[in-house]
Amino acid sequence: MQIYKVGGAVRDRLLGRAVSDIDWLVVGATVEEMQAKGFRPVGADFPVFLHPQTGEEYALARTERKSGRGYGGFTFHASPEVTLEEDLIRRDLTINAMAEDDQGNVLDPYHGQEDLEHRLLRHVSPAFAEDPLRVLRVARFAARYAPLGFQVADDTLELMRQIAASGELQALTAERSWKEIERALMEEQPQVFIQVLNDCSALQELMPELHCDADSLAALVQAAKHRQPLHVRWACLLDRVQPAAIKALNQRFKAPRECQELAVLTGEFSGRADAGMALEPSGLLEMLQKFDVYRRPQRFEDFIVTCEMRALGRGEQTYPQAEYLRGAAATARAVNVKPLVDAGLAGQALGEALKNERLKAIEAYQRR
After folding, report:
1. How many CA atoms lie within 13 A of 299 on its CB side?
2. Annotated binding residue at 137?
């Protein structure tokens, strides 16, 4: 039995980056031997075990064979006869197909260190084309390592084009696709993810509603630069998408509720926010009501931030509408309902009276 560190832990150590998760690979062992040493099995599709002391995952060396469509269409075979080289060749990129033994020696049968040096994301073998999820993974790695100067190798980009043309991307589940999109959006240069998908014709297959020009991605670039959270970045990505198409994208990838809501509301009200200081009091109050600023003030704040990122993306130096809208929201929230209740109002009458009081407060705020 031999145990190796594999994949990202080896790659990132060689790049001088912090290593967070370690993948362990066991060569030459059986399921029974692992259990005899106290490892607990957890893998449903192929043998993965938890270390009895550390709880880290250890996987048996395995091979795989394409048996169906999509990310899950594979049959795995694990046995003591599977070599390290046979396990590594099934991985996506050469920089992810390196191993390290317990002495710190790097085993690199597919020249991952050379591709690290030349800043190339290159596939390990033609079997790369069997897994459509790798199109998104490579685009995500391109976004992650863009600050270091990495690019997708030409022959790998061509394989990605072939996958896009094959229709296999349509077999990906929404959950697996979203996981890659989410991780890519949180990278330092998430626009590279979209650009690579566009370069290999996958964007048209996955997100035909999006455009890949600099103007369309500018808000997302600003959101990443200002370290905004995921839901703001998602809304910025969909900045120039029509409201109906925003809803279609949300549903297609089953985006989290917070992402869906902010993207839809931004698509509907961003123009009104940009014209905020010229809005009629009734129009401004209607927008505040739509956002439910009384019970969900953070959602309106996230919307304002998204609008700021859009403005910065357009080349504007400041967004004075932000403080104006914050003040309007605070003014509406400050209206006290207690005097109306004490006056005996209830139900619909109370609601109308409260709305009128808030409208008066907004009118007074605008006259300042």
Report:
1. 21
2. yes
140 is in an annotated binding site: yes
| Residue 11, marked binder | yes
Q: Tell me: is residue 257 an annotated ligand-binding position.
A: no
Per the annotation, does 8 bind a ligand?
yes
One digit per residue, the tens of pLDDT, for the chain of length 368 reads 899 999 999 999 999 999 888 999 999 999 899 999 999 998 666 689 999 999 999 999 988 765 455 455 556 688 888 999 999 999 999 999 999 999 999 999 999 999 999 999 999 999 999 999 999 999 999 999 999 999 999 999 999 999 999 999 999 999 999 999 999 999 999 999 999 999 999 999 999 999 999 999 999 999 999 999 999 999 999 999 999 999 999 999 999 999 999 999 999 999 999 998 999 999 999 999 999 999 999 999 999 999 999 999 999 999 999 999 999 999 999 999 999 999 999 999 999 999 999 999 999 999 88
Interhelix angle 257-274/230-237, nearest 10 degrees: 60
Distance between CA 59 and CA 74 in Å, rounded?
17
The pTM of the full predicted model, rounded to 2 decimals, is 0.90
23 is in an annotated binding site: yes
| Partner residues linked to 50 by β-bridges | 40, 57
